[in-house]
Design brief:
The complex is a heterohexamer, with 3 copies of chain A and 3 copies of chain D.
Chain A (H helix, E strand, L loop, with lengths): L1 E7 L4 H10 L5 E9 L5 E4 L4 E4 L2 E10 L4 H12 L8 E6 L2 E4 L11
Antiparallel strand pairs in A: 1-5, 1-6, 2-5, 3-4
Chain D lengths: L3 H15 L12 H26 L7 H28 L2 E2 L3 E2 L21 H19 L9 H24 L3 H5 L7 H19 L15 H20 L7 H28 L4 H15 L11 H22 L8 H19 L12 H33 L5 H6 L1 H6 L6
Antiparallel strand pairs in D: 1-2
Helix pairs in contact in D: 2-3, 2-4, 2-8, 3-4, 3-5, 4-5, 4-7, 5-7, 5-13, 7-12, 7-13, 8-9, 8-10, 9-10, 9-11, 10-11, 10-12, 11-12, 12-13
Classes of the chains: A alpha+beta, D mainly alpha.
The complex binds adenosine-5'-diphosphate (3 copies).
One adenosine-5'-diphosphate sits at the interface of chains B and A.
Chain lengths: 112, 112, 112, 425, 425, 425
Amino acid sequence: MKKIEAIIRPEKLYILRDKLDLKGYSGMTVTEVKGRGRQKGISLQWRAGGYRVEFLPKIKLEMVIDDKDVEPIIDIICEYGQTGEAGDGKIFIYPVEDVIRVRTKERGGGAV
Amino acid sequence: MKKIEAIIRPEKLYILRDKLDLKGYSGMTVTEVKGRGRQKGISLQWRAGGYRVEFLPKIKLEMVIDDKDVEPIIDIICEYGQTGEAGDGKIFIYPVEDVIRVRTKERGGGAV
Amino acid sequence: MKKIEAIIRPEKLYILRDKLDLKGYSGMTVTEVKGRGRQKGISLQWRAGGYRVEFLPKIKLEMVIDDKDVEPIIDIICEYGQTGEAGDGKIFIYPVEDVIRVRTKERGGGAV
Amino acid sequence: MLSVRSLLLCSLILSALLAGTAFADEAAINAADNAWVLISAALVLIMIPGVGLFYGGMVRKKNAISTIIFSFAVMGVISLQWILYGYTLAFGHDVSGLIGGLDFLGLAGVGMGVREGLTIPSLTFMIFQAMFAIITVSLITGSYVERIKFSSFLVFSLAWATLVYDPVAHWVWGGGWLQQMGALDFAGGIVVHITAGVSALAVAMVIGARKGFGTDPMEPHNIPTTVMGAALLWFGWFGFNAGSALAADGIAANAFVTTNTSAAAAATTWMFLSWRQRAPSALGIVTGAVAGLAAITPAAGFVTPLAAIPIGIVAAIAGYYAIIIIRGSGMVDDSLDVLACHGIGSTWGVLATGIFATIGATGLLSGNAHQVLVQLMAIAVTWGYSFAVTYGLAKVIDAVMGLRVRDEEESVGLDLSQHGEGAYM
Amino acid sequence: MLSVRSLLLCSLILSALLAGTAFADEAAINAADNAWVLISAALVLIMIPGVGLFYGGMVRKKNAISTIIFSFAVMGVISLQWILYGYTLAFGHDVSGLIGGLDFLGLAGVGMGVREGLTIPSLTFMIFQAMFAIITVSLITGSYVERIKFSSFLVFSLAWATLVYDPVAHWVWGGGWLQQMGALDFAGGIVVHITAGVSALAVAMVIGARKGFGTDPMEPHNIPTTVMGAALLWFGWFGFNAGSALAADGIAANAFVTTNTSAAAAATTWMFLSWRQRAPSALGIVTGAVAGLAAITPAAGFVTPLAAIPIGIVAAIAGYYAIIIIRGSGMVDDSLDVLACHGIGSTWGVLATGIFATIGATGLLSGNAHQVLVQLMAIAVTWGYSFAVTYGLAKVIDAVMGLRVRDEEESVGLDLSQHGEGAYM
Amino acid sequence: MLSVRSLLLCSLILSALLAGTAFADEAAINAADNAWVLISAALVLIMIPGVGLFYGGMVRKKNAISTIIFSFAVMGVISLQWILYGYTLAFGHDVSGLIGGLDFLGLAGVGMGVREGLTIPSLTFMIFQAMFAIITVSLITGSYVERIKFSSFLVFSLAWATLVYDPVAHWVWGGGWLQQMGALDFAGGIVVHITAGVSALAVAMVIGARKGFGTDPMEPHNIPTTVMGAALLWFGWFGFNAGSALAADGIAANAFVTTNTSAAAAATTWMFLSWRQRAPSALGIVTGAVAGLAAITPAAGFVTPLAAIPIGIVAAIAGYYAIIIIRGSGMVDDSLDVLACHGIGSTWGVLATGIFATIGATGLLSGNAHQVLVQLMAIAVTWGYSFAVTYGLAKVIDAVMGLRVRDEEESVGLDLSQHGEGAYM
Ligand SMILES: Nc1ncnc2c1ncn2[C@@H]1O[C@H](COP(=O)(O)OP(=O)(O)O)[C@@H](O)[C@H]1O
Ligand SMILES: Nc1ncnc2c1ncn2[C@@H]1O[C@H](COP(=O)(O)OP(=O)(O)O)[C@@H](O)[C@H]1O
Ligand SMILES: Nc1ncnc2c1ncn2[C@@H]1O[C@H](COP(=O)(O)OP(=O)(O)O)[C@@H](O)[C@H]1O
């Protein structure tokens, strides 16, 4: 099993949820995070003039899935999560050693 | 070493902390997250009628621990974290390559 | 590639960002978390007397980087993130299997 | 480099400015009434940011500032509109029953002396009325939040105040034809709440629904803020209604009591309605209060405290089911239910005034069936006029400058896209 | 399908509604006093959501809405109770010194004319008093937050207002036996704060402590909201105390000044007390202010501004140590310290009135030791009565319908389990 | 163990306390004026936590409580200072035009009877003025937030009120030399806003910039809270300015209208200024309103409503560019722009009073050029005096006890380090 961790634009969350759902990927955990990268921060307004904010609001979307689902999910996220501007985000893939469902103590693939 | 990442019900945090503490597992990091899975969201009230929220508040509990502690911790979380209803959450186990204590630069098992 | 996950004191975020930036490490994701460990919580004031809070505000700093960058980044975080008191935090190192840039679908090292 | 000529020009303009206030005879001013109406004006003023907070808590976090600041911006723009020309359009000498003449343009002749027929200075009356104009414009904002362009909002607000509010205020309170016909509207059921509610519908129809309406959750992001806003509304509404007695007399006391009673009855009723469906909703309780306040507004000084109970109860029932029906229809996204709470609530209130009036007027139950007809007539005309003009106005603005922000701006949220700000850090 | 008979029935009921307001002689109304008491009533009204915010910021996030909406719901329910029968129980013709007769049932005879012995309309007096009944009920909510069933809260509130508030208000202000005995209570130390504080203790004992009380952190989730609430309390308290002069006279001015002074002295004292222990606590400063306000309430119009300083200082010290002792005992979870802040603070205030009174009454320091005895007697009786009746009432409700939510509901939080809502998204 | 001697001592002190209020003749009190000034005092009171919220939303989350509680603490400390000796320093019998004598020490002789030359009780006048002293001290806090030691803040506030506020209030309003010279300051442009704004600059210079100023983002953490604060300011300002008429007369009505107009004009102007640069900023709109309110304060009762428009417009332009220049200079960290909003805004307002005055006084445009000179003189003296004394005072406190918290305390945030609390959980 793998964990897909995608850092995405907050406004893309609902469309991605819809598209992932459509393909049967409904289990996920999201976290409000802030990020920086190529997108070099934005300037927000003070009363007069502005100030720079370098950490921008992003959403971290985490899904633990079977190995075979990695590529289709990457495809969906890249297709519907992008605007073409810097700041669209990244997907990180991590190995997962085990999964346990708290309710039933089931383990492994079936627990996801 | 392993990382245990448990997605739990928010109201179970304090009981789990107590039970883990009792067994000597006190180091942990918690994050407020939102999740969806089998538990199909809930409906909240608008002024009249309701609206559906699919992402539910959950707590992510992270503990980096020695390999030998994995099973006892899983047991505790499953025992005290469950209600038997969908939405009790999942535990994910990840490999950890190294741990460093910022204060002392100690590494490995001793740093946890 | 590796993921560095550092749990740090919130007030150290900006100095670490500056120091990391200087060395060219600018991509990162930060999350507000709460933690407990050796630092045994703090007591906050009620109207009269106090109450104990065991989970303290921390920042989780995540960076996905090339293997060769692990050590220099650990050094920077340990140097500028510490105060010498319990609660300075931990750095965890995880394996990363792949990285994809959402915008371009680039993969691997170049995507970071 | 200021030349002598430009200095002269300046001083000419300035001396014009100075001429605004006449030094009229203050003999007839009743200080108590003046104090009462001034403090009432202040109470109505605090309702305006109250509307902002009430609405602001009910939108998504990314639109919090945008929603709250609408009301504040309106305080700026309509205050100026009112003293420059709005007041005279509403309260200037009657021109064929339709509109006020320009006698009070730029507050000419509106001074510290007593206003004819009252015991308070003209300026006191003028500023009390100013607050009504402002808040009416701010009420409408609830229907188009989360998607309107800020510039278009400003143009719309200014034009709407001029084309809808000022004439209707004249018809009902400024000596216009509805007043001549005997229509009763104690504190603004017709002038404020029907115009706002119906116009909210019209502009919501033109601007279209929010992206994701009906599919994505449009969650109220901060209910305590909404409760705070509702609290300011209930508080300020005493000025709104009891201040409309324009004197600190028994009528003011009566209006104060009916206001509180209707709000209480409607809040309680709405609580039970939402409970019947599922659980006593906090949003429902405060919404009920507002619907009850809107409903009692036209009636406040004309009916007894006990009559305020059925007025409040029916307002809650009507508002509750109006929301269910309007939202259920999926036909229009009146985002914060302005039509249901204000339009429907107050339509009932205006009608109820014709039914229950016993104080200084008589209604159906005191044997004056005619009053009901007059009230119905006033309702019909105001609905029609408000809807038609607002619909047209919104269409024109949409054609000329566009009412909506771009899709991406809406997704990102108006706080960032329209104001370059974020509500909470 | 409405039959003729039901229409007739309706019109009968309605004409009953219309009869509520008598058209009495308005000649004797003093407009200034009327304006002052009306605005004071509005000021007391804003205190009620102020209590909600004050309390709401001090509970855990998952109970924020629940805590805030208690006060708002009380505004609905007790407003109605008061005009229907509460007012007459408190201020109707005295029946054996114990309770008011039913002469004002449904506001019969309570009209726009002047109230006997005063210079303001009966309706003004009635609605000013209504706000006191409402806020008293809302103060108690602080003791049982985070665990009460909403339905039981409603039943308790209604019954408590009827069985405790209305009689005690009658005894002290409505011509009842404590008033006849000469007990002094300018603005509600006995009637409002002792009854609320002591009843809070009783109901907290019956309902039991919150799950995790003493072990889990019960952290105040939003201190700015609490400060905002305290600000509304301080602001509105001017209406509460200075409005209780029932005229815009020198007594009102004096009460205004003593109110501000006691609040300031107590806030400052509490600040230093918490500082001595550790650091100047913001929660402590605002709590001190509230304790000082509660303490000066019975005394406000009877004592000099300087006397308000020791009154405030002692209130803060007493409240501070009362919290430490009550919480330290672990015996009861009076969650937001209602007994300590209101009960203890105002018990001292009632006593202090007997000591410091010099204006329109004399106390110990002006040589009238008897007053202290009277005050002590009033304190003892009110403590005893409030405790006994509330304890019994809570026991009965608990037996019949259960006071507490289920364990899981408490864990999840009352916002979700009782209201189906979440405070912040 | 209380000995007889200590009891005697106590009773001596207490009888001193009781002597505070004289029972003067109430015959000449005008109840309407009294009601108006009392409610105005309450309105000014609510501005004080309003300042706290306004400021509190603009600092970083870790300093939210600290910033908000400054204003609340000031309500405690300066209320006491004022009744004990501040009032007599400002309004006691004039001593050489410089300071008030000690005749009203501890409110001796300040009673319920009418104040000479007015129609309201001395106590009413005293408490209305108290609110001005408090709010002025609270305005300054905006310049040193996020880094001052709480103890030093308290000492500074007390000393500042005594050394700057009380004397300047005497000069301008208490019969002192500026008043004798004919300086016009209707409601506190000189006394409140110039002293506060200029002193803010001085103390900011002494305390130094926040760590990370100019490099780290100093983001406003809760803009809705700031808007709420601004709303309370606008609301309360009606009491501030229209209450300063000290009677419910036409002047009060006029001041009410000019206040609203200037706020509106400045809010609108600032909105366009920020828009020109990028987008209509919500922070900008509310800041504009406050600048407009500060500017109209000295002029409110002296100028016509139309004259309030240019006063507001210029205030916004001046304030806007003042912020850009002061921040751009990088020389001082007046964190929440107190100098720009209050100092600059009101300096313009005081000058504008000399230009536009037509009501009860004459200014340049009515042919009295001399008034401008007097106003300039008053401005220059107040700037100089405020700056010099505050700078010296801050230096002394810094030397004796240190103004700033330690570096780590600043990094962690003042909420935790100074108060042991956290704003949001
Ligand atoms: N090396 C990294 N480690 C962790 N998170 C990163 C890293 N680089 C970027 N991110 C996250 O991805 C987000 C988008 O990255 P950015 O470089 O701005 O855009 P893009 O991927 O389109 O070039 C950042 O805001 C940050 O949250
Ligand atoms: N595949 C997944 N990847 C990541 N998180 C998941 C996944 N499935 C579930 N979760 C998390 O676990 C929570 C509980 O899962 P759910 O399926 O609702 O309950 P249960 O585990 O009891 O069947 C979800 O709210 C979500 O946060
Ligand atoms: N075993 C662990 N797993 C996950 N997070 C941990 C663990 N131990 C500590 N932490 C995180 O690191 C933070 C600092 O740890 P702590 O033990 O208090 O200080 P120190 O590392 O200086 O001894 C904690 O607040 C917690 O967030």
